[in-house]
Here is the input.
Amino acid sequence: MRIGLLLLLLLPALSFAEPATVIRATELRAAAATDAAVVAPLAEGAKVDALERKGGWTRVKAEGGAEGWVRMLALRHAGGGAAKPGDSGISQLLNVARSGTSGTQVTTGVRGLDAEQLANAKPNAAELQKLQGYAAGKDAAAGFAAAGRLQPQSVSYPREGG
Amino acid sequence: MSRLLLLACVALAAAPAAAQFNFNLNRLVDTVKNVGKAAGEIGEKEEIEIGRDMAARLLGAAPLAAGDPVQRYVNNVGRWLASQTERPDLPWHFGVLEAPQLNAFATPGGHIFITRGLLERMRSEAELAGVLAHEIAHVLRKHHLKAIQKTAQLELAGTAVSTLARQDRNTANREKLLAAGSELFARGLDRSDELEADRLGVVIAARGGYDAYGLPTVLQTLQAMNPEDSGLALMFKTHPTPSERLDALERMQPTLDAYAGQPQLAERFAGAARR
Here is the structure.
């Protein structure tokens, strides 16, 4: 059971139901393919629950209970605080630091990249040197790709303006 | 030549303070020419140096995240992608920054960073590849370099005549370029540059053999988050909204679909990125 739960956490696809909206009229299909049978039409603005993603398709449950696959790019997830009112924790961290007993701003120790920190940053030569030490050579990277069974492809850039 | 004249006009308009000096148009044109040379014809060597200096400043704002394996992992993914492009021999460097915010950065000449906060929201190597490929595209198309040049030229044109001795100009030019570079990270690139980097990023990830939907998937993750999340503030300030970026990527649907079946490498990602 514990292993099953762990595996579930490692799943690349959405491992939870997430409310989403259909942004243009489309179809709910029986499989993740354009030629799969149509389960039901989906109107623009329809609310669905996104369950899992595969390639360019997301498996959803429609309001009437029908399940099927819809184009990933035809969906917008809830956002706006409706689905997940949480925060990644930075503002809370800052608030804690700011509302310390003295009430003054004590933001030291809260690190990160906001506009102010970027503007006031001094060069860090030691970290730059460290970064350069991590560089991967062309051949090493090619070996890494082969180990992941990545096959290089010839793909053209899109024509601009078209 | 017309560009030079335009710059001279801009300089004239932008330098009312200079009027109180014994104003000499020839000298102004000379200065603009000088700046134009320093910035307008930036060679690859200088591009790399400017980018390295900008990278050092970024690292001054946030150091590298702890963990050799994750740093090496990100370098392997990034270097493999860069090898699939028209600038395969730049000194490419990739780093994970120790910052909770969600963001990624590129500096000219091939220094690319992703924050720990963004890495933690990803679920596969294909998603990482999509984001790194977007940043690589900024380097390929010199988006930052061009924006920096523009800002620096305008500023220098306005102040150079009255404040700078001739021999100090090169140093000052360099300083101006760097200041413009740092400012750029807080201000952001043009919207069209970001959307172009998204399109090219999809192509570069597909060339690398990854599921091309990596980048759209990350955009969907960002889009599903609370937009008020403080970790998103800078990214949302400097980029079009994730929803707009997803809309714009519909143009890439044929490429996305043709390479949707390629590996995502979720397990390798989980092993390397999460300790």
Q: What stands out?
A: DSSP finds 14 helices and three strands in chain B. Confidence is low (pLDDT under 50) at residues 8-33, 160-167 of chain B.
